Amino acid sequence: MANVIITLIIILAIGTAVGYIIKAKRSGKKCIGCPYSDSCEKKGCNKE
Q: Domain boundaries in the chain?
């Protein structure tokens, strides 16, 4: 029973992450983790 619960938690976490990535890509973000991803012209934005 514990294996089923752990498996469901892992599937939920992966599903949430994939959903976030899809939503971010649809909104036009190039670098998902970057705070400047909306205004960055190039891929791999490293503004500091």
A: 1-48
Q: What is the pLDDT of residues 2-27, one digit of tens each?
A: 999 999 999 999 999 999 989 988 88
CA pair distance 38, 24, nearest whole angstrom: 10
pLDDT at 38 over 70: no
Cα dist. 14→7, 9, 20, 25 in Å?
11, 9, 10, 17
> Which residues contact residue 44 at a Cβ distance below 8 angstroms, ignoring those fewer than 6 apart?
31
**Alpha carbon distances (Å) from 44 to 13, 27, 33:** 25, 17, 10
